[in-house]
User: What shape does this take?
Amino acid sequence: GLFSGGTLCDEAQLVMKDALGFVYSNTPLCEKYLLVNANQSREHTLIDMGDDEFTRGKPHPMIDFSLRLQRIHREAADPEVAVILLDLVLGYGSHPDPLSELLPAIEKARMVNPSVLFICAVCGTDGDPQGRQKVTEKLAGAGVEVMPSNAAAALLANQVIVSFNANQR
Assistant: This one.
């Protein structure tokens, strides 16, 4: 999971904990699962891209997608990655046109790993400048599983991972 902020990253960790146990993170719920290098995923990993190590001297990832886009490409290139879980925060303090960057990155990632599943929760309203309905429709049209909440997105990721693991046995 590649999150633009800590609150949604923490929520996803709490939701996933029941099915998967603790997951690795740069901001883990259990210190035993602290990533040694936040730029290197390990097993099931959820990253707070808004943490200080990523934002020092740079705009927040709700505005500047560059680090998250790089990470999407890197994760998709890993053949063990089956799911990429994202949040997308809308509003006046966020990227004015997030899909102009996110959709090409997803398309490029699928060229490298056609089977990777993208799951996204959009946090915002139709009254936001980006328009929640428009954003969710375009994401869905690009084959992204758009969930109504971050918790629902984390639950779906759980189901996919548990199902995938069961099929590997």
